[in-house]
Amino acid sequence: MNDRRRFLKSAALGTAAAALSPLAEAARPVAKTRAPAGVVRVVSTWDFGIAANQAAWAILSQDGHSLDAVEAGARVPEADIRNHSVGLGGYPDRDGHVTLDASIMDSDANCGGVACLEDIEHAVSVARLVMEKTPHVLLVGDGARQFALSQGFKQRNLLTPAADKAWHEWLKTSHYQPEINSEVRDYGAGVPIDKDNHDTIGILALDAHGKLAGACTTSGAAWKLHGRVGDSPIIGAGLYVDGEIGAATSTGMGEEVIRNAGSFLVVELMRQGRSPTEACKEAVLRVLHKHPSTACKTQVAFLAMNKAGEAGGYAIQRGFSYAVCDAKNQSALIPSASVFPA
Ligand code: SD4
Question: Would residue 195 count as lying in a domain?
Fold first, then answer.
């Protein structure tokens, strides 16, 4: 019996996910100390997370704040035209609109997001201003765009020639099929080997003052219906931070993450005592348990970091990786464990 069939059988028997304990019993106070040297200080999804982490580290290493660090990190892939799933150069929806989703959150439950934002490159920075300058958490569509323009953001066409070409190729069949992540990527050579139609950057950081923050930004699923919003701008789905416990973010098929309040679930599992990797694994199993026949054909991955600077991830499918940077600025790209190894 292959892994998928074995999983479906066990899910049907109701063995995949454990019940949540009462939060009151699970919540444990965490000492507010400076992060010790050697712990993970910033962690990001996918291989493009390495460059994002470096931008975040430039701030953290100067005793800067984690909120500034995650924003700076997320802006790196947003500006990278080789990256077709985040910011400028992102693949458009089926009507040719590049629409961006982003969110940001600090350790005191301050948060902001934008969804279906057009014509503005740095959605994460708009999300931050939603958090800081408005009484709201989430702005969408033209309202988000108007807000960004009112804050001095410049309007620009996010549809690059390469993305436009890919869209016209897609229009020849107009067949929409979310694809599981490619296993081979080579941004280093300047030529992304990338058949994905969805990959998000989620970035989590812990500063020297012991404060956590997170950000998440994406152009979402390529060729999606116009107006579709994924998990990334939704607090609790694509991103969640609890300053006393930890932070989590997600990548992959947003619909499956939203159904399970995925990042919130990961943080709550850490609150109950799971390590970041264990919490991500249990959340992934929850996603599979709820919709086994859909979820086992797609990718969902979670990435988490706790207040002690331990990080971990877990995915449904093989191929997810995450970038870590520790307090000595040592970087690594870590292949995530997954439910289905092949
Ligand atoms: C979405 N979660 O819009 C995002 C896309 C993504 O890897 O992360 N892809 O559903």
Answer: yes
For ligand 1, the distance from its centroid to the CA atom of residue 198, given in whole angstroms, is 5
Is 77 domain-assigned? yes
- Domain harbouring 246, CATH code: 3.60.20.30
Domain housing 178: 40-340
pLDDT in tens, 221-268: 999 999 999 999 999 999 999 999 999 999 999 999 999 999 999 999
> Rounded to an integer, what is the distance from CA 236 to the centroid of its chain?
11
- What are the pocket residues of ligand 1 if the criterion is a CB atom closer than 6 Å to any ligand atom? 101, 198-200, 218, 220-221, 230-232, 251-254
Q: Which residues of 88-127 are buried (b: 16+ CB within 10 A; e: fewer)?
A: bbbbbbbeebbbbbbbbbbbeeebbbbbbbbbbbbbbbbb
Report which DSSP code applies to 245.
Answer: T
Q: Is 20 exposed, middle or buried (0-12, 13-18, 19+ CB in 10 A)?
A: middle
User: Which residues lie closer than 8 Å to 93 by C-beta, 6 or more apart?
Assistant: 99, 220, 222, 223, 224, 225, 226, 228
In a domain, 306, yes or no: yes
Write down the pTM of the prediction. Answer: 0.87
Q: Which of 45, 99, 200, 277 is catalytic?
A: 200
> What is d(CA 189, CA 180) in angstroms, rounded to the nearest whole number?
22
CA–CA dist 212, 225 (Å, integer): 34
Going by C-alpha positions, the residue among 115, 117, 119, 112 that lies closest to residue 71 is: 112
15 is an active site residue: no
From residue 304, alpha-carbon distances to 234, 253, 311, 316 in Å are 16, 17, 6, 15
Domain count along the chain: 1
For 154-165, the pLDDT digits (tens) are: 999 999 999 999
Flag whether 8 is in a domain. no
